[in-house]
Each structure stands twice: as C-alpha cells, then as structure tokens.
Design goal:
14% strand, three-stranded antiparallel sheet, 13 strands, six-stranded mixed sheet, Rossmann fold, globular, 367 residues, alpha/beta
Length: 367
Amino acid sequence: MLLSESKSFRWFFKLLNISITILVITLFSINFILTRGDVIQETVYTSNTPNLTRLDGVLPNMTYDDADRLNAYWTQTDLNGLIEPGCINRTNGKVWCDFEEKGKDFKIAIFGNSLTFNHHKMFLQECRHRAYNVTMYSECGTTCYSGIRNGFLKRGFGRIETSPIFSSDIIVSNYLLKRCEPLAALPDEDHCKRHLLDFVDFLESVKPDYAFMFTRFFATGSPFENNNTDLETDSTYKEMINQIDQFTPHIKKKLYILDAFPRTNSQYTLEVAKDLKNGRKLEEIYREIVQVDTYKLARFRTESIVKKCGSKCELIDYEPLLFNQTANRFEFFDSKGFLYFTGANHLSAHGMELVRPIFTELCNKLS
C-alpha cells in the first residue's frame, strides 16, 4: 500500500512539474509577443526580402491588401521604422550626434529638419563605406516622431494637418511640433530664427568634407510680397543666401541640397490602396493625393541659390522620380498602391527604395 501511494505521489509531482513548465513557457511567449509585437511585425514584413539592405519588404506578388497593410504600418512607425542605432552624442548641449564608420575617405555631415532623420538609415547604407565619420543634426527628429506616432495611434492613423499652411508648426492630435529649415525662417517664428544659427554652429563644429541638407520646405515656399518675383528684393531669398554664405566656408568640398517637391494630402494617403482595389479612377486618385501648394516657389528659390553658390553646391532632385512627364502628373504611389510617403509627409520605406539609387551613385563618385 505504501509503495503504491509512493508511486502515485511521484507521478503527481512529475505531472505537476510538466504542467508548471508548460504554463511558464506559455506565459513567457504571450508576454514576448505583446511586448515585442512591433519587432515581430517588422520582421514578418522584411524577412522575405532578398536584398538585406532593402527597407520596405515589398515583393513582386503582393496585392492591394498588402499595400494597404504596409502603408498603414509605415505611417504608424514613421521615423521610428527607419532608425539606425549607434549615433553617439559627443557635444554637450547640442542634439547632433556621430556615427563612427569604417570607411577611410571622408567626414560627412547630414543636416536639416525631420527629413534628415527620415533619410539617415538609407543614407548610411549607401554612403558609410566612403566615410570614417557621419555626423547628423536633425532639427525635430525623435521628438517629432514621438508626437506623430502617438497621434496616429490614438486616432487610428487619423489625419495630420499643418495649420496655417505657411507655418512650421504641425498639429497632430494634441501635439504641437516645431519644424525648422536650415535656410530660412518665417518672420514670426523666433524659435526657427534661433535654429538658423544652430545650423551654422553645427557645420562650424563638424567641418565636414561633404554635407547633405535634407529639408522639407516651409519658409522657403512663402509667397512673394506683392507678387514681386524679383529675388534681389525678396527677404526670404536674401536670408537663404546669407545662410549659404555662412555654411560653405566650413565645408571643404561640396554641399548637396535636396530640392523641394509637393506634399501629399495626408488626410487621404491611407485610402489609396483601398480605392485602387475598389476600381476608383486613377486620375481622381492622383489628383486627390497631391498638394501642390507653394512647392514651386521653394524650388525657384532653392535652385537660384545653388546656381549662385556655384561649384560648391549641387542639387539633389526627386521630382524626376515622382513626376510622370507622359501623363503630366505626380505619382506618389506605385501600380500596386504602395505609397512613397507616410501620412506625416516623410518618405516611407518604399519611398526610400525609390530614391536609393541617387545616393548609391552619388556616394560612389565622391572624390
């Protein structure tokens, strides 16, 4: 009798240990999935991509539904989905940071507003082999991202609106975020006026061989006073020239400047793939997604200062990739509905793949 009871107890405790082990493993797995869902989701989107440097995870056999899902994912993650770790802050009181690289050729600076932070991962993939140091100054990088992401999460990928159209403030949910350009600031925006000096300080501190300016237009697209397009009397153009004149002495070889391009209608972007699937006319979709506003004024000024700068400056232009000359229209998504921009008007991971060849060629020819 005692022997039988002893065996029963041993069997019971063995079963209890197995049950506890299974329970612990199950709870751990659930906790991991809940806490690391974003990472798992990103891995699923990118793991089948044959090119390990490719950021978007888009495959040839994907559908409108895949586009709808990825477009939402890129907008949700926005800047956080394109972060390269390892940027070290070495300057007290300043937000710029350094990537130490294994190249032997150049010291490179990348700077501007949130579009700089948006580009830095792809840029490093294409250019780090030429650099021993890449220093980044993104005015409104992770701070902007945090507000944008929280706003989208709260509103189910709801709308982002800029108000007024010529302000550098972006309103996302209850967040008020500041975005400032390196070349100009609106007269009533003292915070951006101060940052104009910070951009000069940045280049003076870094003294790069090459510098790349990534910026979305705000002040540089301001309407001309009294419709007078004479640049010599235009206060915005004068401010831009003054900034360039302060930048270039601190850059040993060349400054590359991204030219302006239109914004998207952020209230509509996440409807594109759905509308394509439902058979809406392409012309209607193309018209609705593009906000032409004043980008041509920004291009006019930017191209003029680069011309005046001479051989020390060079334009980087995305318009040839975004504008279909045959159809005479901007196309901000591909035939499957994969967007080149997020709802916050940053380039999506798919947009980065569109412009990547520009930087592959550009950085390979640096001398």
